[in-house]
Hints:
The complex is a heterodimer of chains A (373) and B (363). With 373 residues, chain A is of the alpha/beta class. Chain A is built from 10 helices and 15 strands.
Amino acid sequence: MTHDFDRSRRLALGRLSAASLATLSPWALREALAQSALTVGYIYVGPRDDFGYNQAHAEAAAEVKKMAGIKIVEEENVPETQAVQKTMQGMISQDGAKLLFPTSFGYFDPHMLAVAAKNPEVRFSHCGGMWTEGKHPKNTGSFFGYIDEAQYLNGVVAGHVSKSKKIGFVAAKPIPQVLRNINAFTLGARSVDPKITTSVIFTGDWSMPVKEAEATGGLADQGVDVFTMHVDGPKVVVETAAKRGKFVCGYHASQAKLAPQAYLTGAEWNWITAYKLIIDAARTGKPHPNFVRGGLKEGFVKTSAYGPAVPEAARKNADAVKAKMVAGGFDIFTGELKDNTGKVVIPKGKTFKQTDIELESMNYLVEGVIGKI
Amino acid sequence: MSTRPWQETGEAIALPILALSGGLLLFGVFVWFGGHDPIEVWKLLFVGAFGDSFSWQNTLQRSAPLMLTALCVALPARAGLTIIGGEGALVLGGLAAAGLPYLMPLPANAFGTLLLLLAAAAAGALWIALAGALRQFRGVNETISSLLLGYIAIALFKHFVEGPMRDPASLNKPSTLPIAEGLRIGGMAGYDVHWGLAWGVVLCLVAAVWLGWTTHGFATRVVGGNARAARLVGLPSHQLIITACALGGAAAGLAGGIEVAAVHTSANASLIAGLGYAGILVSFVARHQPLAIIPVAILFGGFGAAGSLLQRRMGLPDASVQVLLGFSFVLILASEALRGRLFNFGLVPKRPALPAAGQPKAA
């Protein structure tokens, strides 16, 4: 019985697929007509309206959509499995995309590299990966922003606002990008008052809403009164902190709408700068920008407008530091810097520029951070 | 209730097709309310899932792991247990496959790959057998325990991947050391579909043969039907049930091993993508019939592939495909109520008349 079911099903599907060739031709025609425009594909790992990482990309993609001569195709909630390879290939062969932005970190290796090898004429620009000359193909590349600068400014504001001198950081995983943000936030706060400590909790993964809420509540119980975070969707941390009557600095995108009174400022991506650079190169046929990085100065990141709870002194202090950063005269990671076990991690006299590649493999928490990797 | 063979066959084909059409129809109404053209949406769904060779490869590739994770639900179910912890078996299978090269040198050829997959299957088998044993010997509800064991498996997986087994070069995406080039699983004869699909289809067929045509499989089904009666006729119910759990777990573990060897090349958090949970739905829709799992998994893969195109062409959110999935599967499950009645046209009495003495009792 099941055999018949199976066979007839396969037969039916076979016939249907033959019939579909007819339905396909109008698509082919439409694609050919659309060739004059550059089709750009955006792939997100989560929902586009997550008040976080994916929203930051989607908002910039919406800007790109308005540009003349550009057509964009988007797909959200694409897991870092074979599915993303199929999505990339689909964007190329079904939608005629010539430039792809796979935005999740996990898309880089092996997924993007696998699809890029099969499609040498298509440009791939990945967010956050470490594109390495000689190791990765020329039609691929990566871009990222020095958002730790904005997290430092978050820290400065938090340092002024905190009464308990205890601030909190809800983090996903102890990986270099996250550690760099925790350290920058702490250094910013301690530049205001060296007595301040940052308590950090790692939830273990990028999107763990329940654990994020528990971590925020737990830290609030310990007396933490200003929060920030590095998780994919900061919504839960922002709302939980506000509900507990604490203050919060945002991350990825602006969460001011979620808690207008409790929101102090935030570290936001400004991906449109990177997108424009890469898209312009694709349109004019210039070589693909393989390794693109930038901070506040280059307009890759920005800060949210100050909330009503930010005192005048904090605004002045943060604005002054920001002005120095934009002028290129401010370094966050300078010696002598100790980690939270007392070991010197940056010797006296040594200063790391934001562009220094060593910072992208950070593996310590600075003095003043309460937590363990 | 008497049904003729043509009725059974007819229903087996007609019910899912009717249910699916109903789901598509409802979805059409749904998108129409959202201001989209339903005809265009239906066309895209079809083109995305089965429209051309790319779409077919897309669909089949997505269905491959689901066949294996569905077996992890179906096989224990036939022995009478509701196991929903396939995700745990899958991640441990992936971990075992990535971990075997840490323990012993492997020949970089098909034999080495086979060893990897065996390690993966063994890890999955142990994990689900544990849930079965807890049920048989300690009376722990297997549905709950398998689900919770899944969380423990994921925690163990993360501990090893981000701790002792971490490749120091994997900075922002903690992973195990990549497996050697020669151990990886490639595409099938020039197609963009890897050999995991063949594993899935073959194992579904083998499972069907085992359940339908072997004494051991028959005994398993008897135990699943009524364990107490099975014990009365001398069947070793503990042994049969735990074996069925182990075989199911082995299938899910294998799925994890294949994901590592064919897709990820190392074990990392990307492996935890809910494939084990999707298998639960596949198995229930297939009514735990290994042969039915193949088309249902392909259908599932098709929804994934179609959803992908739908997002790109219509700008619909990903959640809309979940709506379609919801409509379809609720109707498929609800259509069970029509089984044995579809072609009766009200001619056959639905149930034997109650004897006169069986008056309804007072409430």
